[in-house]
Amino acid sequence: MLNILKKMFFWNYARNTWQWDALCVLILIFIFLTPQRWFQNGEPAGQFLHQTRAAETLLIPAEAIGNTQDNQQIQQYIRRYRGRENAQIVSVRKQTGADGKTIGYEVDIR
């Protein structure tokens, strides 16, 4: 009995044995019959997707807003460009070129 448990724990069975086939069947049963709720971490999956869809990222050239990082000026430009009067800025990231000059802004809006 101890020898059988030792073989099962360290899996000393060859591929062409019935024990190997039984293990493969058990693995497939686990994969296809395991409830999805066992793999959920408590946070609804749709909540994350909803947040990513709500924000939109735009690339604005520096010349379009006068090479300044004034959120009010960026917001006015976005409202004109997108035609949405209720657009709100979530975040602004300055994009610089290899020479260190500002080439534009990456703006997340809602």
SSE inventory with pairings:
Layout: H1 2-10, H2 18-33, H3 45-54, E1 56-61, H4 71-82, E2 89-96, E3 102-109
Write up what this structure looks like.
By secondary structure, the protein is of the alpha+beta class. It has helices at 2-10, 18-33, 45-54, 71-82, and strands at residues 56-61, 89-96, 102-109. Strands 1-3-2 form a three-stranded antiparallel β-sheet. It is elongated and about 80 Å long. The N and C termini lie far apart (66 Å). The model is unreliable at 45-52 (pLDDT under 50).
**Which structural class matches the secondary elements?**
alpha+beta
**How much strand content do the residues show?**
15-25%
How many individual domains? 2
Uncertain runs are 45-52
Arithmetic mean pLDDT: 79
Helix-strand pattern, N to C? HHHEHEE
End-to-end Cα distance, whole Å, is 66 Å
Short synopsis of the structure:
The chain is of the alpha+beta class and 110 residues long.
Please tag this protein with its features:
110 residues, alpha+beta, 3 strands
